[in-house]
């Protein structure tokens, strides 16, 4: 066997009389073609997946709202993707401290649902939900190599943070208050598009226009798109809210809130996968793992019970406002979309005074550097802006918060005097 | 003529196996390979001992409040099986891929450097088949390295900590056998996560005649990609970096398993293998072998 004949591929092609340079070019075309095919697939597949707008019978906005109200999905499980983009500067996690500062108070367990709520207010998260009747629900917040689960099974409510191996335990009484208490725990983590939609539809009144805007396909299901807009877009920063509603079950599948200033959605929460099958019973069983640190609900301070007016007002404020709303009963100026919540942090130093909402230490000077100085009949103050929520902090310690423009805030502050 | 041709061609599958066998023996008999595997086996021992000493006074593992530290470290004291997951999470970012980079970078360039490449090509195997064999041997090393870490971690975990039913990170409970099955699956996924880098290293290896240069370039690429993956401004390209979904193996400890990122990881590895495997083929089958 001659050594020259050993390399079959080269020998064969040399015999074809093709020049070596061309052969090399042809071979290098293979990896290039693979890259091209991959790029085409990555570019085209999402475009094809998004293009579905199924043919569904016409429906009025009123009928669709009734469909949502009637919706009684007892069993389902799915994956929800939540993106929140308030346009805050990236403070490297500091913003979490600012907002959760009011709740944590130093003694909090990382498995406490309250401390987890604020995580949903920033960035993109994947949440898995499972429901089996009114007594069994589970919400899991997927983190890198860790997970936070909130499990409601019968009388027990468990929070489990796998990263720190901490467990939070609360109970729901077996009496008439069950539903309230359950709702309380549930609403602490507004995770599903339905939670967002419920909050919104509660407030539909004559300042709001509700229309059905075609159909869409969400998580492989045919859905109607319900668009809710402020009618007199005077002071509010909310542009429009679009809700995709499952045509068959009436379950909201996707919730998108776009600001009046345009650009990307501020809140975008939608199912990426949903199944109406009964979830495995084992999903709701929870026994605290050995060695886990367990925090009982009644141990975590007394502030859990008094959250006056939280649900009534938090809608206009969004998740971030909710954190603020919890720290004291705010007063509301204006109504509908232009509502502004007022907190009086005052010098009187109420136990739940607002300054605590802005974290520990003395960050006020740092905060001032982030805001714009404004003045009016009310005096002087600083406005902190996000793409949705603006807050005015006056020099005499009052805080005005709302999903309204800077001018509307100043007007509200003036009207107070 | 035709008889002579069949005589040459018929034993080919066997010869490929023979080539692969000799390739595997040379790879795994090298002191370098054994030293790499030894270092990898030592990592779980180190973690296990550290956790054991830290928790000997009854305090929980890891900083209790912040929840920082390697993945799953808080659960090790309750179940030794979690040491397998922690050890893989610790070794996957650098130790494992560095070892793979060394083996893959050395595959062709090392032979060229030692002057043995042309003798390999004298055997009637063909360049394509030699390249495939080299890649197969590298992938075999990926598997071996991952299982060395996993088995060492399991042994240390069983020795120092209790074993038994484990709580998944979703809060549900699974039996020990199923947990062991998931650990096996995780080791497999981790090994597959390294195949993209192995193909990249093989391509680099065909570019040069210096084994050291190829290893250094591969490991340098690995470090560069790992750094790029940390820069938030580059989030648009990060999903296409080969290391971006590496830690998605942790999704196998969820219940039910969260497949999205796992599947994406395997797709990315397949893409890198296809692109750099074919690039290595294009380079290796057309270049002049002078050494």
From TrEMBL, chain B:
Membrane spanning residue stretches: 34-53, 81-104, 135-163, 183-204
Organism: Streptomyces thermogriseus
Lineage: Bacteria, Bacillati, Actinomycetota, Actinomycetes, Kitasatosporales
UniProt keywords, alphabetically: Membrane, Transmembrane, Transmembrane helix
Protein name per its UniProtKB record: ABC transporter permease
Pfam families associated with the record: ABC2_membrane_2
């Amino acid at each position: 066997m001659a050594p020259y004949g050993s390399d079959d591929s080269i020998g064969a092609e040399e015999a074809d009389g093709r020049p070596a340079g061309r052969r090399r070019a042809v071979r290098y075309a293979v990896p290039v073609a693979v890259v091209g095919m991959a790029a085409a697939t990555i570019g085209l597949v999402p475009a094809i997946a998004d293009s579905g707008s199924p043919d569904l019978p016409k429906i009025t906005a009123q009928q669709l709202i009734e469909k949502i109200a009637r919706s009684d999905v007892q069993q389902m499980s799915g994956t929800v993707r939540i993106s929140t983009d308030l346009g805050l500067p990236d403070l490297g996690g500091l913003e979490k401290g600012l907002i959760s500062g009011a709740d944590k108070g130093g003694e909090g367990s990382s498995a406490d649902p309250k401390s987890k709520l604020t995580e949903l207010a920033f960035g993109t998260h994947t949440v898995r939900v499972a429901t089996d009747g009114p007594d069994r629900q589970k919400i899991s917040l997927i983190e890198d190599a860790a997970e936070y689960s909130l499990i409601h099974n019968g009388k027990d409510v468990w929070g489990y943070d796998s990263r720190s191996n901490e467990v939070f335990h609360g109970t729901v009484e077996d009496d008439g208050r069950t539903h309230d208490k359950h709702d309380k725990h549930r609403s602490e983590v507004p995770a599903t598009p339905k939670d967002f939609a419920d909050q919104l539809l509660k407030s539909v009144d004559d300042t709001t226009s509700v229309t059905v805007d075609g159909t869409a396909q969400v998580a492989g299901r045919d859905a109607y798109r319900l668009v809710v807009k402020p009618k007199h877009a005077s002071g509010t920063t909310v542009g429009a809210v679009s809700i995709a509603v499952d045509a068959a079950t009436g379950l909201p599948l996707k919730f998108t809130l776009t600001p009046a200033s345009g650009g990307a959605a501020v809140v975008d929460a939608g199912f990426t996968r949903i199944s109406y099958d009964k979830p495995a019973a084992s999903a709701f069983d929870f026994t605290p793992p050995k060695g886990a640190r367990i925090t009982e609900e009644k141990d975590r301070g007394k502030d859990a019970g008094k959250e006056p007016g939280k649900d009534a007002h938090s809608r206009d404020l969004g998740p971030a406002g909710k954190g603020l709303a919890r720290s004291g009963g705010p007063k509301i100026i204006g109504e509908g979309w232009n509502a502004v919540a007022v907190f009086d942090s005052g010098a009187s130093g109420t136990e739940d005074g607002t300054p605590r909402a802005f974290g520990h230490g003395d960050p006020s000077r740092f905060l001032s550097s982030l805001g714009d100085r404004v003045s009016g009949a009310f005096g002087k103050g600083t406005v902190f802006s996000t793409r949705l929520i603006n807050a005015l902090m006056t020099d005499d310690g009052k805080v005005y918060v709302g999903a309204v423009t800077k001018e509307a805030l100043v007007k509200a502050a003036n009207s107070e005097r | 003529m035709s008889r002579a041709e069949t005589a040459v061609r018929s034993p080919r599958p066997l010869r490929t196996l023979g080539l692969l066998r000799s390739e595997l023996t040379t790879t795994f008999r090298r002191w370098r390979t054994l030293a790499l595997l030894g270092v990898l086996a030592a990592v779980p021992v180190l973690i296990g001992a550290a956790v054991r000493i830290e928790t000997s006074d009854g305090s929980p593992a890891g900083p209790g409040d912040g929840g920082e530290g390697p993945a799953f470290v808080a659960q090790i004291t309750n179940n030794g099986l979690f040491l397998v997951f922690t050890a893989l999470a610790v070794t996957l970012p650098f130790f494992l891929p560095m070892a793979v980079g060394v083996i893959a970078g050395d595959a062709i360039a090392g032979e060229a450097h030692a002057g043995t490449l042309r003798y390999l090509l004298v055997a009637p195997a063909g360049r394509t088949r030699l390249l495939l064999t080299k890649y197969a041997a590298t992938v075999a090393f990926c598997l071996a390295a991952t299982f060395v870490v996993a088995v060492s971690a399991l042994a240390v975990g069983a020795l120092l900590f209790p074993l038994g039913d484990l709580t998944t990170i979703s809060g549900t409970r699974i039996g020990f056998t199923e947990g062991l099955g998931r650990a096996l699956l995780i080791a497999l996924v981790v090994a597959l996560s390294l195949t993209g880098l192995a193909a990249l290293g093989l391509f680099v290896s065909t570019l040069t005649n210096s084994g050291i240069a190829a290893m250094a370039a591969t490991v340098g690429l690995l470090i560069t990609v790992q750094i790029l993956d940390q820069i938030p401004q580059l989030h648009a390209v990060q999903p296409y970096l080969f290391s971006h979904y590496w830690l998605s193996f942790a999704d196998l400890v969820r219940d039910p398993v969260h497949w999205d990122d796992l599947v994406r990881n395997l797709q990315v590895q397949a893409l890198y293998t296809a692109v750099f495997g074919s690039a290595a083929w294009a380079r290796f089958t057309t270049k002049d072998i002078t050494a």
